[in-house]
Amino acid sequence: SREELKNRVEKLGYEISQDYQGRELHLVGVLNGAFMFIADLARHLRIPCQICFLQASSYKDKQVSTGEVILMHNLDLSGKDVLVVEDIFDTGLTLKHIKEDLKMQKPASLEICTLLNKRIQDKIDIYVKYIGFEIEDRFVVGYGLDYAEKFRELPYISCLD
Ligand code: 5GP
After folding, report:
1. What's the CA gap between 130 and 47, in Å, rounded?
2. Which residue is catalytic, options 40, 90, 146, 161?
């Protein structure tokens, strides 16, 4: 619900602020799905930060992964403390590509924060430091997440089926 999201995002902001105290954090939002989450998360940080974005290909109109990930950005994160902000960790394919891509820029540190972690059987083994909610294996929309570009505006998260 709207309330649960608000409370959890606030807690994540507090936790991240504690962990990165005394450092400047570079939040890298994964477009399009993470736009609402990163906006709310940033408002709960108590440390200086910079906010930038990269674009990752989505499932488009399908509810299953095509296995193809295309990243677009012109970031320079060399020597920065980077926190990737993602909407949902499903198979992990997207995050794996993002991590490998950003690592090449030699950031001082590189961690991941995902709003949702979907419980599925075959997940790629990636360390995700911050997780908002664990969810079951269902297709969700709202709070930035879409189905065929619809439902992103919902202030809560809902199952499509
Ligand atoms: P992964 O690469 O981890 O399998 O999938 C990550 C991406 O797939 C997410 O960033 C998101 O765009 C999309 N995705 C995965 N599961 C869902 C879901 O339940 N709902 C929506 N709307 N997108 C999803």
Report:
1. 17
2. 90
Is 90 labeled as catalytic in the residue annotation? yes
Give the mutation target among 88, 116, 117 for probing the ligand 1 site: most ligand atoms within 8 A of CB: 88
Segment 6-51, tens digit of pLDDT: 999 999 999 999 999 999 999 999 999 999 999 999 999 999 999 9
CA distance 26 to 105: 13
C-alpha span between 17 and 12 (Å, rounded): 8
Q: Whole-model pTM?
A: 0.94
Enumerate residue ranges in the chain where pLDDT < 50. Answer: 61
Q: 19: which residues sit within 8 A by CB, 6+ positions away?
A: none
Q: How many CB atoms lie within 10 A of CB 136?
A: 9
Neighbours of 160 (CB within 10 A): 13
